[in-house]
Amino acid sequence: MAETKNVFLGAKMNKDLDPRLISNREYIEARNASVTDSAGGDSGVLENVFGNIELTNFGLTDSNLKIIGFYVDSTNDRLFAFITNYTDSSATGLTNPAPAASGHYIAV
Asked: How many whole angstroms separate alpha carbon 52 and alpha carbon 4?
């Protein structure tokens, strides 16, 4: 079977515009990719990350947890994961705010 490879020469990531307005040379999201940040001339280079492995479960045992955001602190070599077990049951999925007693976690 043929393998598809996309090369984004001169392209950039654009998360600001509506996806319908993005040109063919721009992309919205990248998975299994990392942007190199260095002091040399190759800063901002997109490189492939070959795979993912689970390093920790943060000591949480709830099987319905979902990561809703994260922040990488490269200076201190740590990751902040914003985790919840709340599911909005409204038609839009946006109108029922989570009650304060819901399981929300910030894991470091």
From this structure: 21
